[in-house]
């Protein structure tokens, strides 16, 4: 491994955030030690800004976050939005129509810079549905365009995520970037056609004067694949999706084994050989 790892880039869910929503003590300690050693830290997630509370709870105000699969850059230390790449409403209407051609029962939602807008049938039924909590999705609304859609979501209840994506990819890939990131729900995630995690991470690293050879990246799902392939040290979680495994040069132990923490500890040990001495 190259000793000159200057930037750690980590996905959240399934990579460092467990199914119960927690981040292990060992993982927290590893990231803090890396920061103290002078390594830059950026979290790269499909989550919107409004879902960053697990990071705040675990790390306080540590690092920068690339949200919504690369569409949003957020400074967690200053709690401010730095950049957002939005999708115009005309494109979204075309995409919705094309998806409905392939999956007539699909439902939709849109994440803006300010919050979530839900289309009919998108929310799961049950006691936690909380009707009225989120505004209705209206792709003819000028206000929606002004807020700026950073991620468009489509849900299927008849196909799994891989099959759903395969059914629509050829139709919409020229209009939006397309991926998915969940094992337990068939949910497609779409962003501006020029956006994915690798694009945002490359730009962030370049602004720091860091090239891919000095970046270690961690992820577990299809939305991490480009990032894992771009990084000089790409690690897919053993517990992750096959597409992440194919994209990454390396395999990290699974999330329940604190795989990311194990790799960070190895990186720090190689930078400081004296800590390997008994």
Describe the structure.
The protein has 278 residues and is α/β, with parallel strands linked by helices. It has helices spanning 25-36, 53-59, 89-102, 142-147, 161-172, 197-207, 225-230, 242-247, 259-271; strands at 7-10, 40-44, 64-67, 72-75, 80-84, 107-112, 116-118, 149-155, 176-179, 187-192, 215-219, 233-237, 250-252. An eight-stranded mixed sheet has the order 5-4-3-2-1-11-12-13, sandwiched between helices. It has a five-stranded antiparallel sheet with strand order 7-6-8-10-9. α1 (25-36) runs parallel beside α9. It is globular, with a radius of gyration of 19 Å. The two termini are 22 Å apart. The model has no long low-confidence stretch (mean pLDDT 93).
Strand order of the largest sheet: 5-4-3-2-1-11-12-13
Shape: globular
Question: How large, in whole angstroms, is the Cα Rg?
Answer: 19 Å
Structural class: alpha/beta
What is the element string, with H for helices and E for strands?
EHEHEEEHEEHEHEEHEHEHEH
Distance between the termini: 22 Å
Strand content: 15-25%
Query: What is the number of strand segments?
Result: 13
How many helices? The count is 9
Largest sheet: 8 strands, mixed
Oligomerization = single chain
Kindly report the average pLDDT value: 93
Unreliable stretches: none
Helix content: 25-40%
């Amino acid at each position: 491994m190259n000793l000159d790892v200057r930037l750690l880039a980590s996905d959240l869910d399934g990579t460092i955030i467990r199914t119960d929503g927690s981040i292990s003590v060992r993982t927290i300690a590893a990231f803090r030690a890396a920061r103290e050693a002078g390594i830059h830290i950026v979290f790269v997630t499909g989550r919107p800004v409004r879902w960053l509370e697990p990071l705040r709870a675990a790390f306080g105000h540590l690092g920068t976050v690339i949200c919504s699969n690369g569409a949003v850059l957020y400074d967690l230390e200053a709690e401010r939005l730095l950049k957002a790449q939005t999708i115009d409403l005309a494109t979204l209407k075309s995409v919705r129509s094309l998806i409905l051609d392939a999956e007539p029962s699909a439902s939709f939602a849109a994440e803006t810079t300010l919050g979530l807008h839900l289309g009919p049938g998108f929310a799961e039924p049950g006691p936690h549905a909380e009707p009225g909590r989120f505004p209705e999705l209206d792709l003819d609304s000028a206000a929606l365009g002004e807020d700026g859609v950073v991620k468009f979501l489509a849900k299927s209840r008849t196909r799994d995520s891989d099959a759903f994506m395969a059914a629509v990819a050829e139709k919409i890939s020229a209009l939006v970037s397309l991926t998915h990131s969940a094992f337990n729900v068939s949910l497609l995630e779409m962003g501006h056609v020029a956006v994915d995690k690798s694009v945002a991470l490359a730009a962030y690293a370049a602004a720091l004067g860091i090239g891919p050879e000095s970046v270690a990246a961690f992820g577990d799902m299809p939305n991490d694949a480009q990032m894992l392939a771009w990084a000089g040290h790409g690690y897919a979680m053993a517990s992750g999706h096959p597409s992440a495994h194919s994209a990454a040069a390396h395999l990290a132990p699974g999330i329940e084994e604190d795989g990311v923490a194990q790799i960070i500890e190895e990186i720090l040990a190689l930078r400081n050989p004296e800590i390997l001495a008994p």
